[in-house]
Amino acid sequence: MPTADFEAKRALYPAPKVLHDWADVPLPGTYLEAEKLNSAELEFWGGDLRSAATKVGYIRSLGADVLYLNPIHLAYTNHKYDAFDYREISPEYGTHADFRALADGVHAAGMKLVMDGVFNHMGRNAPRFKEALRIRRASGATAIPSCAAGCARARTVGGSIPRSSSARRSCAP
Q1: CA–CA distance, 43 with 110 (Å, rounded to integer)
Q2: Strand pairing of 43-44 and 18-19?
Q3: The model scores a pTM over 0.90
Q4: Which residues pair with 19 in a beta bridge?
Q5: 75 by DSSP, 3-state: which?
Q6: Is it the case that residue 92 has pLDDT exceeding 80?
Q7: pLDDT tens string 9-37
Q8: What are the counts of helices (DSSP H) followed by strands (DSSP E) for the chain?
Q9: Which domains does the chain have, with CATH numbers?
Q10: CA distances from 146 to 143, 150, 151, 172 (A)
Q11: What number of CA atoms fall less than 13 Å from residue 60's CA on the CB side?
């Protein structure tokens, strides 16, 4: 859902990020060596929590009883799976107050709100991840451990390992 004030949001998307007009067609991206990701991951269309809140009635009228949101926490890319901080909302999407208003509207419409997130990892530019790398390098290590070798150590530097059986299997040596 396009934002109500498209031009006011432009400053939230410094290069190499791109803010597209809502009607622009997404195109395949190219690899950005400096960013170490595809340019399509840095393309945004300006949708936000406030604009989503204005469409709750319409969504409900379609028969939906659940509103699903991709990750909204602070991260660099458009998909937000490269989290910096799970406690913060990316400013492109709004504020905690905007989220609360959306959640209140969804619940008032008799709907549920489902939030996506992958909380067992974060982006390589996240402060906690950088701190873990700093500690690892300070220990004299020359390589970053694989999950199998590093899961136990991740707990000691502020990381967390999920307790689900599938997560334990993925981290087993």
Answers
A1: 33
A2: parallel
A3: no
A4: 44
A5: strand
A6: yes
A7: 889 999 999 999 888 999 999 999 988 88
A8: 7, 8
A9: 6-115 (3.30.750.90), 127-170 (no CATH)
A10: 9, 6, 8, 11
A11: 15
